[in-house]
Amino acid sequence: MSPVPTFLEAIWGNLWKYIVGFASFPIVVRGSGLLLEGARKRWESASAAKRVVSTQLDPLLKAADELHGKLRSLAEEDFREFRTIVETNATGSDLVNLCSTLYLFAQFWGRLEILRRESFHAELTKNRQGKLLMDFLRCLESKHVRLVDRAWQRAIGELVFTEAKPVVNLITFREFVERYEQIERVREWVRPLEELLRETKFRRARQRALQYGVIVQALIDTLDPNHHTTRERPAYPNKLSRRAKRELIGRVFGVYLQDVKQVQKYTGIRN
């Protein structure tokens, strides 16, 4: 075999490597750019999630703590407070008692709505606490747990928003009572919740409210285990029916809240 073709083949082979390398250089650069862009977006999303949790968790826990304290107090007396509020337009102490519970629910739901809005551009599930928050949010708004329809819940939460943009603080209890007294539209928005509270003279409605309180307490204990922000309170499993306990174990803690470890505390039943 003549050495000339071999020599030419070697030259052509090296030249072809340079051509291929030069042609693929933009692809490599473009690929590196895409990787860097993806890494930047993941970092920004993680940072946004961390920021949302750091700014929204504390006020949400405080609102949950106040609501749970009220529900536990009502549970101890089997919601006797609402058995005396039978007239359409409550006045005096009945008005204050009714509005105090309505306000605590509205405050808690308002904080959930703020969390939802703040997390719109943040993947909270990338953050451990954020994932737990989203698990609780999905649970509290699920069909068999929520106390009112999701749309009504959001509207009731928005009733306590201030006029400031973005919303940081919520209106005071006094302002809420005055709005409830003076504005018919406010009374219409809270009516589904008010009707449920009035229905707690019946066992089924009472059990729904008690189940909701258990989930709120589980949220507090899970996201503030050392109770730096909240108060540590005993649960009330003796107030729950067998059916309510089964639903909590099977549907709530068995499906939505699998990371909750103190199921026996809330249900009185060993896993």
In short:
The chain is an all-alpha fold and about 270 residues long. It has 9 helices and no strands.
Describe the protein.
This protein has 271 residues and is an all-alpha fold. Helices cover 70% and strands 0% of the residues. It has helices at 3-76, 92-118, 128-140, 150-158, 173-182, 184-198, 203-223, 242-256, 263-267. Helix 1 (3-76) packs antiparallel against helix 2 (92-118), helix 3 runs antiparallel to helix 7 (203-223) and helix 7 (203-223) packs parallel to helix 8. The longest helix is centred in the N-terminal third of the chain and has 74 residues, at 3-76.
Please give the largest β-sheet: none
Approximate strand percentage? under 5%
Question: What does the radius of gyration come to?
Answer: 28 Å
Helical stretch tally: 9
Shape: globular
Distance, first to last CA:
83 Å
Topology, please?
Blueprint: H1 3-76, H2 92-118, H3 128-140, H4 150-158, H5 173-182, H6 184-198, H7 203-223, H8 242-256, H9 263-267
Helix pairs in contact: 1-2, 1-7, 2-4, 2-5, 3-7, 7-8
List keywords for this structure.
single chain; 271 residues; mainly alpha; 9 helices; 70% helix
